[in-house]
């Protein structure tokens, strides 16, 4: 697990000299605690700590500069890794792998370098809903980093800062 308590790559100084971790929300929608996710693999934190977004915006972006370590052709999940070792999994919706890519327009491939805010996938929310799938999207820190939610049960925008701290 990377040491995220000291100065890390991509970190900047915030107001009054406090350290600020460079991370933004990859999606817009209702911010949820990871324990509220219906799938126990996520809510039990078996895969790692994190949060979820119940999508209202179909464009999913990179939450930080890094490498795309996994990009499923179905568009339902993406792994990203930052230079300092922070890794996250963005799992778009629940049981969406069953759609075999229908409703997902993937914009990146495995091994690609992305900048914070770059679009990973565009999701047709209406098509996914019509297929009976949940749009709750977990964002999990798979290398074991614990997170503290700074906001809860509120609407957030894609690219929004200060939603959590490490």
Show the helix and strand layout.
Elements lengths: L11 E2 L5 E2 L8 E5 L6 H4 L5 E7 L3 E3 L4 E6 L5 E5 L5 E5 L12 E3 L6 E2 L4 E5 L1 H6 L5 E6 L6 E2 L5 E2 L7 E2 L1
Antiparallel strand pairs: 1-2, 3-4, 3-14, 4-12, 5-11, 6-7, 6-10, 7-8, 8-12, 9-11, 13-15
Can you summarize this structure?
Helices cover 6% and strands 34% of the residues. It has 166 residues and is mainly β. A hairpin with a 5-residue loop joins strand 1 (12-13) and strand 2.
The helix fraction, in percent, is under 10%
Main β sheet profile? 8 strands, antiparallel
Which strand order spans the largest sheet, edge to edge or round the barrel? 10-6-7-8-12-4-3-14
Shape: globular
Give the oligomeric state of the chains in this entry, treating copies of one chain as homo and distinct chains as hetero.
single chain
Q: What is the total number of structural domains?
A: 1
Element-by-element helix/strand order: EEEHEEEEEEEEHEEEE
> Which topology does CATH recognise?
Glucose Permease (Domain IIA)
CATH class: Mainly Beta
- What is the gyration radius calculated from CA atoms? 15 Å
Secondary structure class reads mainly beta
